[in-house]
Design brief:
CATH superfamily of the largest domain: Hexapeptide repeat proteins
CATH class of the largest domain: Mainly Beta
Strand order of the largest sheet: 8-11-14-17-22-25-28-31-34
Shape: flat
Strand content: 25-35%
Largest sheet: 9 strands, parallel
Number of domains: 2
Number of helices: 5
Number of strands: 35
Radius of gyration: 26 Å
Distance between the termini: 84 Å
CATH topology of the largest domain: UDP N-Acetylglucosamine Acyltransferase, domain 1
Helix content: 10-25%
Oligomer: single chain
Length: 327
Amino acid sequence: MALRLGSIVETLGGELRGNAELVIEGLCSLECAQSQHLSFLSHPKYQSQLASSKAGCIIVSPQFEEAAMARGSCIVTEQPYLYFARATQVWKQSLHRPARALIHPSAVIDAEAVVHSTARIGALCVLERGAVIGAHTELKSRVTVGEDCRIGARCIIHSGVVIGADGFGFAPNEGAWEKIEQLGAVDIGDDVEIGANTCIDRGALQNTVIENGVKLDNLIQIGHNVRVGQHTAMAGCVGVAGSATIGAHCTLGGGAIVLGHLTLADGVNISAATVVTRSIHRPGHYTGMFPIDENAAWEKNAASLKQLASLRDRIRALESQLKTFNH
């Protein structure tokens, strides 16, 4: 397929500098783009690739307009990355594919489940009793939605997602474990996207809640009774333990862990591989990881870290002695 550069700008706005009749046949990164491609510069650290890029047109911010025009056509906009995201949406909508059934014949849907007439249910999906699927929501193949779990409107649930499995709840009983029945469900808001093979457990008593606009990557574990605030985003392999509360507009980098019963305020950003061991009540960027090193050096540093508490006590004792001496 192909789109005129001018038609893209007519749809998305921005200031076109160059040939509106240029035919765009695809979207591509700066380093790989050719003359038929539309690309973008979203961060100054990649500006070295701008002059050498062979892209037919590049989306840039006003500060790079002059440099972009020196090499060819460009679209100038305040938010190039957002513009590129919307260009991908236009591109996908322009792909002509034959219509398909809204509900795949292999899907298993309980008679007491409720599926909106505009929702799409993919191959081998399972919707258990009382499940509710909102308008224009799409479940890709092999999604399982457990009893009484609700998914709002315009959501995208990717392959292999399990919503509403039992939370991990057991009571100790004379050296064995007694199951705690999970009596809650999962409540997912509107405009949520959930990546492949992510699991969201049902609540033990109250529901697990994923608010509007949340974006979850692949292979994420959300424990029972967790609440995730609106427009929060989590990268792959994040784990959130039971009864944690994540605020709105937070980000969690890949592999980050949030321990149970903790609270993260709105606007908290957690770096990849960080283990959150205490509640965070102020917005900001938080990191907690031990840098990689050669193993021998790492072991020495790790051994030193184990002595920090005693070293602290020794320093305090020395400071106390100095104060006494100075007096």
